[in-house]
Amino acid sequence: MEPEQKSNGALVGSVIIIIILILGGIYLLKTSIKEKPLPGNTETAQNNEILNGAAVIEAELDSMDLESLDSEI
Length: 73
What we know:
Elements lengths: L8 H27 L6 H22 L3 H6 L1
């Protein structure tokens, strides 16, 4: 009988997958750091978003016709 030979294919595949995941994580980390706004501008941007959202909601409320709601009941 011939002795069984061990295969390292699973180990090599696992190492390759781990290396790919590490490289992907580093890439995502670097791109997310580049896209962050400056610390001083974050409050201004958030305030503008809140004001724009409030204006949109107010415009929708003004355009609603509540008088026709009573006639449907």
